Amino acid sequence: MKNFYFLINLLLIIFTIQKHFIIYAQEPLASLWGINDTEIPRYLNIEKNLTLLDKIVKPFLNDSSFGGTWIDVKLNKVFINTVNLSQVPIIKSLPELKTYLDFLEFQPANNSLEYLKYSFNQIISILVSEYKPHNIFISIKPKDNNVVIALGLDENDEINQKFINATLHYGPKIRYLPSKNSSILRRADDREKIQVRLSGGDNIVGDSGLCSVGFLARKHCGPPCIKRKKDYIVTAGHCVSSLNVRFNHFVDGDAFFVGTMVSFSKNKYDYGLINIRKMDKRLKIRPSIRNFGSQDRELLITDSIPASSHGAHLCKSGAKTKLTCGYIESFNGVFTDINDIILIDLIFTNSLSNEGDSGGPVFYFFRFTFSESSWH
Ligand SMILES: *[C@@H]1O[C@H](CO)[C@@H](O)[C@H](O)[C@H]1NC(C)=O
Ligand SMILES: *[C@@H]1O[C@H](CO)[C@@H](O)[C@H](O)[C@H]1NC(C)=O
Ligand SMILES: *[C@@H]1O[C@H](CO)[C@@H](O)[C@H](O)[C@H]1NC(C)=O
Ligand SMILES: *[C@@H]1O[C@H](CO)[C@@H](O)[C@H](O)[C@H]1NC(C)=O
Ligand SMILES: *[C@@H]1O[C@H](CO)[C@@H](O)[C@H](O)[C@H]1NC(C)=O
Ligand SMILES: *[C@@H]1O[C@H](CO)[C@@H](O)[C@H](O)[C@H]1NC(C)=O
Ligand SMILES: *[C@@H]1O[C@H](CO)[C@@H](O)[C@H](O)[C@H]1NC(C)=O
User: Fold this and answer.
1) What's 268's domain CATH number?
2) Together in a domain, 197 and 96
3) Same domain, residue pair 252 and 360
4) Does 224 share its domain with 352?
5) Is ligand 4 within 6 A of the CB of residue 86?
6) Strands ordered across the beta sheet of 66-72
7) Most buried residue, 65, 94, 101, 176, by CB count within 10 Å?
8) What is the pTM assigned to this prediction?
9) Residue with CA nearest ligand 2 atom 4
10) What separation in Å is there between the alpha carbon of 62 and the centre of ligand 2?
């Protein structure tokens, strides 16, 4: 259940992080890695191997001697932040790691994971509640070997400045995100044929403007239960201001009724459930993700195992910025918004996203094949 929610949260969260302009002539994953489309399967395998190795090595790393790990697919390495360098020969001599030594890179680092967790917790539990900063992203980023505090649009806000000043004691990295206007958004250069299939990432419009379809969810009742199963579309909670908001899907100006929001949450976890019992009969729901601008129009959802290493790729499909991919920079991130709402357990990536993408699905490519989409 937890995964289910934080995947949604990611989307809310990345909407103000707009750093990278990605060229869409290729598959988004190929442009992320700077490779040709045909090389994607090989790089996915490298990523899988590194993720596995990352999992193998982590249990041997003492939090007080090491400062986190991340993978780099292009370099084919697992990087290990090393505070106590005399631990390196000990780790290297472990029989469990003998065959992987070429793939391990020990990086000198100053901050132990123990210290990073401590300062992160101090900042979250004491300083955030005391200063109530606005639109701030806080997480431990192993690649920076630090707690990173990123400020959204209010960098000159007095409240935020006081908060930042108070955090300096712990030595975090402070980043100022580009202002909302400065991001480059992709042009709508991939007008699609009219088709009324609803996939993850497609537009839905409620009372707060554009949002995106996340994925299908089914409510199970226990074994004695004989009621019909209920299907929902999952999207972001902040897509509505109240319950029972009606959502439509738009295709070239035509509105198709999707359903009404029957449950939502904005605090801690950001999600909303749209009941689709009365959905327009012409709409067909697909357990897939819209692959905007690619030859394969839909990506089939095969599984929902979350990606698990810093540095692994993660993509999202949204109605505003379409399909983009980025690297995982942190897990367990925290976001405080302007209304004292705090979201937790977030994954931060560096991929392009914007308002309107909210609620859209986040996923990673498990396998990549070049076949025609066979949906009709
Ligand atoms: C991609 O393929 C083209 C032609 O096959 C080649 O010229 C180019 O160097 C390749 N790019 C990369 C990043 O491998
Ligand atoms: C992944 O690991 C397997 C087993 O160690 C190895 O055979 C394979 O060549 C690796 N793949 C890549 C792309 O490095
Ligand atoms: C980590 O190292 C510290 C000091 O070297 C030691 O006190 C602690 O017990 C170690 N922790 C684990 C889990 O091995
Ligand atoms: C670093 O690791 C070595 C080897 O385990 C240990 O003897 C030493 O006490 C450690 N240094 C610190 C500062 O923890
Ligand atoms: C560790 O801290 C020292 C002193 O502040 C600094 O000179 C050095 O660059 C730091 N090392 C890393 C890897 O950040
Ligand atoms: C910044 O923090 C220090 C101590 O944490 C405090 O003495 C100082 O007044 C603060 N400055 C501002 C401008 O708030
Ligand atoms: C951003 O856009 C708004 C209106 O769209 C404008 O008022 C504001 O000055 C712009 N900010 C920057 C930094 O360009």
Assistant:
1) 2.40.10.10
2) no
3) yes
4) yes
5) yes
6) 66-72, 77-82, 104-108
7) 65
8) 0.72
9) 49
10) 27
pLDDT in tens, 136-182: 888 899 999 999 998 865 556 888 889 999 999 999 999 876 544 33
Greatest Cα pair distance, the chain, in angstroms, is 66
248 alpha carbon – ligand 7 mean position (Å): 30
The rounded distance, in Å, linking the Cα atoms of 114 and 165 is 23
Residue 58 domain boundaries:
37-108
Tell me phi and psi for residue 146, to 5 degrees: -160, 170
Taking CA atoms, 198 is separated from 235, 273, 281, 347, in Å, by 13, 15, 12, 26
Residues 1 and 84 in one domain: no
User: Hey, what are 22's tokens?
Assistant: 């990605």
Q: What whole-number distance in Å separates Cα of residue 356 and Cα of residue 11?
A: 10
E-assigned strand segments in the chain: 66-72, 77-82, 104-108, 136-141, 146-151, 173-176, 197-200, 203-206, 209-212, 215-219, 230-235, 246-251, 254-265, 271-275, 284-290, 298-300, 313-318, 322-336, 342-349, 362-363
Domains held by the chain: number: 2
Among the bound ligands, name the one nearest to the CA of residue 38.
1
Q: Is residue 162 part of a domain?
A: no
DSSP secondary structure string for all residues of 47-98:
HHHHHHHHHHHGGGS-TTTEEEEEEETTTTEEEEEESSGGGHHHHHT-GGGG
Cα–Cα dist 36/44, whole Å: 13
pLDDT per residue as tens digits for the range 197-232: 676 677 888 877 788 777 666 655 555 555 555 677
**Same structural domain, 10 and 71:** no
Tell me, in angstroms, the distance from the centre of ligand 5 to residue 233's CA: 48
- State both tokens at 297: 């129009």
User: Is there a single domain that holds both residue 264 and residue 360?
Assistant: yes
Q: In angstroms, rounded to a whole number, what is the distance separating the alpha carbons of residues 329 and 50?
A: 16
Give domain status of residue 244, yes or no: yes
Domain ends where: 108, 129, 147?
Answer: 108
Cα angle: 16, vertex 238, 332; to 5 degrees: 60
Complete DSSP assignment for 119-177:
HHHHIIIIIIHHH--SSEEEEEEGGGTEEEEEE-S-TT-HHHHHHHHHHGGG--EEEEP
| DSSP structure class, residue 268 | B
